[in-house]
Write a structure and sequence with these properties.
Length: about 500
């Protein structure tokens, strides 16, 4: 018996020896703050000829620090500014702040393709391929009309969180707007541009940013003359499940792309008149039919499918099998299926081949892969050779995981609770009411499946503006995709239209 007790006690002691003692709880270690780098400014001097006239200008590639709520720097923002030399009266010289979207994209696309002083030559709408690439003086630049400041959002390009901040401090609708407001305010202050005419110029999600940003800055006392919305998205609720707005809004773009690729049985000669007809059908018969859901009578299903087929080039059978509702991904796969081709999302003019012709959706976007290497490669070369700017960190054309971790909540003007998705047409309307001289220019690509022009028209028509303010919104359309400037003919017209817009939005100093 004693032996048995002894064995049990020994076993218990062994068990106790093998069981680790409970450790005292220790407070989590405070994250080490990222070093705060000094602001940088690399200046180079250049010359550009526009319409036979020579313009000397300075390019500044550098960074500015922006402060957080504790008045300590929390972001280092990279930018490239182009300013005309010899300007002594800054109140007569506009300044424009430009940026791309994503969210999570650097501004390399607008910078290297649109209205800056240099332009990358691509083979669009064909894939451009590998280097060497050709960078040329941009004869369609706006530098004769305005100074240009291209900004990279924090977490993209060379812009980084600093101090105790992380990407989380910037990866969100409202967080992003606040950071851009701080940067623009700092830039305007450092460069004495408070009394200069001012414009915002955003592309894609950059238009979402602009609509909210102009309202924030107006409320902070910085008024603007104009906002350029290129390839616009102002309402992320359009894709809500169970709602048909997405299918109605995409239809005119489907028709434009089918027209471009000669997939219509009786191709109309006038695309503008044709798209007006499609708009009428989309907001009328088509919208009414979809509103009935699965209760739409079979005869009406047949009739609507036949009209959809005539407008989109898709077969009646396919449209009926899709319940008269085709999203952009399926359209890109289906329209050119018989040719074993897929189409681009950003630009429906682009074609590519997929792993097979039987799939339901494309495996990639030929309009993205077709130009990315050319833009990114050319920008790196230009930055070091022409702008003389080098940095120890990597340049992020797209910020790692920014889009995936984006906080989409947005506190709209007058709202009691934050919206779960960005809806910013109301923000833009708020800014226009408070600044009734604010002009808005909406520029749209007919073949853009990322931000369809018909949805943009809808959003800008639902801001509840008084008639005297509605006339402050202008529209323009181009035979191009999301990146309008990839079509050089469209870029030429865009430049002329922008020049006229700037002239109308800026009154001469007295």
């Amino acid at each position: 018996m004693k032996a048995t007790i002894l064995v049990v006690l020994l076993g218990w002691n062994v068990l106790l020896a093998q069981t680790p003692a409970k450790e005292e709880a220790t407070p989590p270690k405070e994250e080490k703050a990222a070093p705060i780098p000094p602001e940088r400014s690399q200046v180079t001097h250049h010359e550009l000829t526009l319409d036979g006239k020579s313009y000397k200008y300075s390019a500044v590639a550098g960074t500015l620090l922006i402060d957080g709520e504790d008045a300590k720097p929390y972001g280092s923002v990279f930018y490239v500014a182009y300013t005309l030399d010899g300007v002594t009266e800054l109140r007569s010289r506009p300044v424009t702040f430009l940026y791309n979207g994503g969210p999570g994209s650097a501004s390399v696309w607008l910078h290297m393709g649109s209205v800056g002083p240099v332009r990358i030559v691509t083979a669009s709408p064909n894939a451009t391929g590998g280097p060497p690439y050709e960078l040329v003086p941009n004869q369609y630049s706006l530098l004769d009309k305005t100074d240009l400041v291209f900004i990279d959002a924090v977490g993209t390009g060379f812009s980084r969180p600093v101090g105790k901040a992380t990407d989380k401090n910037f990866a969100g609708t409202d967080q992003d707007v606040q950071a851009f407001a701080k940067f623009i305010t700092r830039y305007v202050t450092v460069n004495r541009r408070w009394n200069s005419p001012k414009f915002l110029f955003g592309e894609s999600y950059g238009t979402t940013r602009s609509a909210a940003l102009v309202d924030v800055l107006e409320n902070d006392g910085m008024s603007f003359n104009g906002v350029v919305l290129m390839s616009t998205i102002l309402n992320y609720f359009v894709r809500s499940p169970g709602m048909d707005g997405e299918f109605i809004g995409y239809l005119p773009t489907y028709a434009a792309i089918a027209w471009y690729h000669n997939k219509l049985t009786n191709k109309p000669p006038d695309v503008k008149a044709f798209l007006d007809e499609v708009r009428t059908f989309a907001r009328g018969e088509y919208a009414e039919a979809l509103s009935q859901g699965h209760n739409l009578p079979a005869a009406r299903v047949d009739a609507i499918a036949a009209k959809l087929s005539a407008f989109t080039g898709l077969s009646v059978q396919f449209l009926k099998e899709a319940n008269l509702r085709v999203n952009q991904s399926r359209f890109r796969k289906e329209l050119m299926r018989s040719d074993r081709e897929i189409l681009g999302r950003y630009d429906g003019r682009f074609e590519g081949t997929d792993v097979d012709a039987a799939g339901d959706t494309p495996g990639y976007d030929p309009s993205g892969t077709g130009i990315t290497g050319a833009f990114v490669g050319s920008f790196h070369d230009y930055l070091t050779k022409e702008l003389k700017y080098t940095a120890p960190e990597n340049y992020f054309p797209r910020g790692p995981n920014l889009n995936q971790s984006w906080d989409r909540n947005h506190r709209a003007p007058g709202s009691q609770q934050p919206l779960r998705e960005p809806y910013v047409a109301g923000d833009l309307a708020d800014a226009m009411r408070k600044n009734p001289k604010l002009r808005v220019f909406s520029v749209n690509g007919l073949f853009d499946l990322a931000t369809p022009f018909f949805i943009t028209e809808y959003d800008l028509a639902h801001m509840d503006l008084e008639p005297k303010l509605r006339q402050n919104i202008e529209f323009a359309y181009y035979p191009s995709g999301h990146m309008i400037y990839l079509n050089v003919d469209a870029l030429k017209q865009l430049r002329a239209d922008l020049a006229a817009f700037y002239q109308s939005a800026v009154r001469p100093p007295s």
